[in-house]
Design a protein that fits this description.
single chain, alpha+beta, four-stranded antiparallel sheet, binds 2-oxoglutaric acid, binds fe (ii) ion
Length: 428
């Protein structure tokens, strides 16, 4: 199969020339001290984000390179890391597991399950994210500002594909005014929030959580373009972005049964004793909690992130969950990405990991759940062949083209968490 060279890597392409121009313009008058203030995490973000010169991925751990069955996917995408970039170890296979699990001794609690999601399940989860999940009653980043179609934005986009006269205008919630500047839909805001715990969650739940005001400066937009502004959709307990706390007063959104099964089977596939051996002191009162995760892990919240190729997710810690150690299961679909994970501050040098479609990553335990992490780059043109219509049989290809067209420039990340210990009923 022919390689696809992303435009950004082709010196003759317009986007390469534009990135080069922008680079020379931006660096012309830069003081020599420009980079000195950056924390190691910030420096790594800048390095991997760069469009010119393009980043060298030889220090990025790319476990797909260990698997012959992924050769075509890796070669088609051009971008590749290295299987030896970071010291990792393979965990013993559990009886129920059919794909390998790896852990990184320098990051206790971080487990990578490459290709854990089958190719068919990847297609199902991508469809679920768009058609079933990113719509009412689940909140998305667009709900604050737009009156979204009742059947969901994706349904409107599908109708518009068949007949462009059906591409509806989606209206803003606020009346248009030119003089007020309020936040527009865009990247997630960074707020330094208090870490939640069983002791303070009731006090935190009393913090006022006013709804964010709709922007008065945005205009009606066609559904087919608004789709590319979709950045997240909430799962389970509602999250309040202004305070970065869960808003328990809204009740709990339903957790999709199939998604729950995938997360539970990922947690069950890991030999946690092997992962956490020797870390007992760090767990304090929690003791060897991981020993009972087979019975107590219960996802109840999360987010589906939708990234376009220029989107990034800045370094952050997910500390709003009352369970501060329980596994956070992260599923990657579509284009690949560089994921950075560091330590308890931005001053530790982060480990770069290449996450590809179908990979599951689990962050768990007292240090890993409090580690800074982020996504500085979505890797262009890395949509694997099994998410392209050309590779599908007759039965599967009929409605896939719309998904392929969207996924060509997209990465989806389903990020599932456990806010409360199993069986715990919060009193509001
Ligand atoms: O996209 C990813 O892989 C990570 C997303 C993430 O860290 C988050 O949603 O908090
Ligand atoms: Fe996160």
């Amino acid at each position: 199969m022919a390689f696809t060279i992303p435009d950004i890597q082709d010196p003759k392409s317009q986007s390469y020339k534009k990135a080069r121009r922008q680079y020379y313009k931006a660096t012309k008058n830069r003081p020599a001290t420009y980079e000195l203030d950056w924390s190691p995490f910030r420096a790594a973000e800048k390095r991997y984000k760069a469009r010119f010169p393009l980043p060298d991925l030889s220090s990025v751990l790319d476990l797909a390179l260990l698997d012959n069955a992924r050769q075509q996917e890796v070669e088609r995408g051009v971008w590749r890391g290295s299987p030896n970039a970071v010291h990792y170890a393979q965990l013993p296979f559990k009886k129920t597991a059919s794909t390998p699990a790896y852990f990184i001794p320098s990051l206790p609690g971080l487990v990578i399950l490459p290709s854990f999601i089958s190719r068919e399940k990847q297609r199902q989860l991508a469809k679920w994210s768009l058609i079933k999940h990113a719509r009412h009653p689940n909140e998305t980043n667009l709900d604050t500002h737009y009156e979204l179609p009742v059947d969901g934005l994706w349904k409107s986009c599908l109708l518009a594909r068949d007949d462009s006269s059906k591409d509806i205008l989606v209206y803003p919630k606020a009346l248009y005014s030119q003089d007020t500047e309020l936040p527009k839909p865009g990247p997630r805001q960074l707020v330094d929030n208090t870490p939640a715990s069983l002791d303070n969650f009731q006090a935190l739940s009393l913090t006022p959580k006013p709804p964010q005001a709709p922007s008065p400066t945005i205009r009606a937009t066609l559904a087919s373009s608004l789709l590319y502004k979709l950045r997240w959709a909430n799962i389970g307990w509602y999250y309040h972005w202004g305070t970065k706390q869960y808003d328990f007063s809204k009740g709990k959104g339903v957790i999709d049964a199939e998604l729950r099964d995938v997360c539970i089977s990922a947690v069950a596939a890991v030999d946690w004793d092997e992962v956490f051996a020797g870390t007992e002191v760090e767990w304090g009162e929690a003791g060897s909690e991981w020993k009972s995760w087979d019975k107590t892990y219960e996802p109840d919240a999360g987010i589906v992130n939708f990234y376009q190729t220029k989107d990034t997710l800045m370094a952050h810690v997910d500390r709003s969950e009352v369970c501060a150690t329980s596994p956070l299961v992260s599923i990657s679909l579509g284009n690949a990405a560089i994921f950075l994970v560091g330590g308890l501050t931005r001053d530790s040098e982060p480990v770069p990991i290449l996450l590809r479609s179908g990979d599951v990553m689990i962050m768990s335990g007292p240090t890993c759940r409090r580690a800074y992490h982020g996504v500085p780059r979505i890797l262009e043109e890395t949509l694997p062949p099994h998410l392209r219509t050309a590779a599908l049989d007759e039965q599967n290809r009929s409605d896939w083209q719309a998904y392929e067209d969207y996924l060509c420039t997209t990465r989806i990340n389903i990020n599932v968490r456990q806010v409360f210990p199993k069986g715990f009923k919060p009193i509001m």
